[in-house]
Amino acid sequence: MALGSNSLVIRRIKKVKKGGKHGGAWKIALADFALAMMALFMVLWILSVASPEQRASIEGYFNDPLGQSTAGFSASPIDLGGSPAKTTQQRIDLQQPEEGSADRREKKQTTDAESKSDEEIKEINEAVQEELKKMNLVVSQQENLRIEITPQGVRITLLEEPDKPMFERGSARMLPDVENMLLSLAPVFTGVNNPISITGHTDSTVFNNVNRLDNWDLSAMRANAARRIVEEGGVQRNRVAQVIGLADTIPYNRFDLDSPENRRISITLLTDEAYKAILDRNRLNFGSPVEQADLDLEPNQIF
């Protein structure tokens, strides 16, 4: 057809509908949902790790984002440590708490308690050594006597020698030499006013007699026999914190479980901290969890 003629020209345009199954609107909705979930989890994480002061700072930021927060910190909500801090606000760092935080105070209190306990152990040991000097007793010359410093206090141990038994075989009857040794150590126990813990130990040899007693019974009976001797030597009854039989569970000689050294009596002069720990542990494990006054019982429930 020649150009410039008066003939009618028709243009057909194909219209394509956008969206539908192959549109991108759902991607935007999903991105918004993911962003909202991320913000939610971020808020939950901050609430779980932030200190009360930091939570107050965040609250102040949202109350007035452009000004000073109500908690006295800056307008910047938090500093996660990824960039240089713009303010002097506290950092959220559980491993390295700032000065004055609760973790630092608890750590300082624990350190102070440990230092106090170490100082008390030192004082107990000095008092024991002083009493031994008065008695002209040299521990290094006594093959069956050991004085050791432990976290609980100063421990004095009487070990059985191969040719000098401490008790009659299979019995809690103490032989005269050991009894005299405990009585001679009475000034050591009476010269220090700390509470006392007494433990009895046996070797791993299986012991049974006609009365069906075993190493547990034997170690407990021997520890109680030692308690009676030290009380005869002048130790007041209320100073004895505990008397325990441990059988062969804690050998002195771990390489020879049948060694005579494992048959022994240990008497520990406890620190105040160790004594309180024993009392707290015993109350927790063996005390009544509920006081009678706390029970709301009717008479018909009792009788």
UniProtKB/TrEMBL annotation:
GO terms for cellular component: plasma membrane. InterPro entries: Bact_OuterMem_StrucFunc, MotB-like_N_dom, OmpA-like, OmpA-like_sf. PROSITE patterns: OMPA_2. The chain crosses the membrane at residues 24-47. Residues 154-273 form the OmpA-like domain. It is a single-pass membrane protein. It is found in: Cell membrane. Residues 73-119 are annotated as: Disordered. Belongs to the MotB family. This is OmpA family protein.
